[in-house]
Amino acid sequence: MLTMIPQHHIKYLYEYKGMSLRAIAKETGHSFQTIKKYANKEDGNPLPTPRKPKQSKLDPYKAQIDEWLEEDRKVPRKQRHTGTRVYRRLLEMYGEEFSVSLRTMQYYVAKKKQEMYQDGEGYLPLEHSPGEAQADFGSFTYQDEKGVEQEGFFLTLSFPYSNASYAQVVPGQNQECLLQGLKQII
């Protein structure tokens, strides 16, 4: 692997001097493939090596913990296991052989519960095609000439694609009023 200075020099000759890959190979003495690799590389930093997953002291007990947490789904919230309660149960079951810290247990239980109780609710992106319209009735109160409060109705026609909307006062909330209101809006 080339050091950073030759890599930058290759990139400089290719990008700013406009030299061909073969000319750079001839000038630097590196192979054409090496020049091609470093000339087209965006980031000169080497990729970090991925870490190997470590074995946890908790691994032998995870199946039991997961089973308890699954059973907890059927009971009321206040009766479910906490990290501390799971820790104490395992300590009673395994005694001195159990060598996991309380904090590790609490962290695992909290993470597992978050995964389990995560709402599966997603959302769909709200998309509106041009020309689509939405119509809806609404009501409002007003005072007539005598000062008496009356209930009135309106029809709203909105075009979500352009955020344009139009409203029309109508006498009721039925099909006849819908058609008359649309006719007056258009």
Describe the 3D structure.
The chain has helices spanning 4-15, 21-28, 32-39, 62-71, 83-94, 102-116, 175-185, and strands spanning 134-143, 149-159, 164-170. The protein contains 7 helices and 3 strands; from the N terminus they run ααααααβββα. With 186 residues, the chain is α+β, with helices and mostly antiparallel strands. It starts with a helix and ends with a helix. The longest helix has 15 residues, at 102-116. It has a 3-stranded antiparallel beta sheet, with helices on one face.
| Strands in their spatial order, largest beta sheet | 1-2-3
Question: What portion of the residues fall into strands of 2 or more residues?
Answer: 15-25%
The number of helices is: 7
Distance between the termini: 72 Å
Q: Low-confidence spans: pLDDT under 50, at least 5 residues?
A: none
Helix content: 40-55%
Silhouette: flat
Rg: 35 Å
Sheet with the most strands? Answer: 3 strands, antiparallel
On the 0-100 scale, what is the average pLDDT? 88
Structural class: alpha+beta
Order of helices and strands: HHHHHHEEEH
Number of DSSP strand runs: 3
Please write out the topology.
Layout: H1 4-15, H2 21-28, H3 32-39, H4 62-71, H5 83-94, H6 102-116, E1 134-143, E2 149-159, E3 164-170, H7 175-185
Antiparallel strand pairs: 1-2, 2-3
Helix pairs in contact: 2-3, 4-6, 5-6
Can you give keywords for this protein?
single chain, 186 residues, alpha+beta, three-stranded antiparallel β-sheet, 15% strand
